[in-house]
Amino acid sequence: MPGDGRGFSPAGEQQPPATCRFETFFRRYDPSLRSYLYARGARGDVLEDAAQEAMLQALQYWKCLQDHPRPPVWLFTVTRQRHHAERKGRQGQEELTDDPAALQTPRPGTAAGKRVFAWLVCGLPDCQCRALS
Prior knowledge:
Layout: H1 22-39, H2 44-60, H3 62-65, H4 71-91, H5 111-122, H6 126-132
Helix pairs in contact: 1-2, 1-4, 2-4
């Protein structure tokens, strides 16, 4: 199943080349993304919003996402996380806080810390990305 932690592609399915255009990526993965959300219980506006938000985020990070070893895995992971957070928010189970002591920050050098760093770097202007690489 897409994005379930066991990998995205069924046996033998090819990943898109890193240089493909966003439109190609969108056309290839949007239907699968919507099916995945439907299987997770999203319907109607919730499904539409979640799919559009995930693709919008992919577009915003497209330049960095092209260098990701498995862009579809990233897409489905973002989608799963957003849909999960949105469901929790609707159920009133998620409380937001601005207390720094309550927030968990990944430690530098850990896998989570490296992911956060990579995510932050993707949002920088080109000249700053080049300076860090």
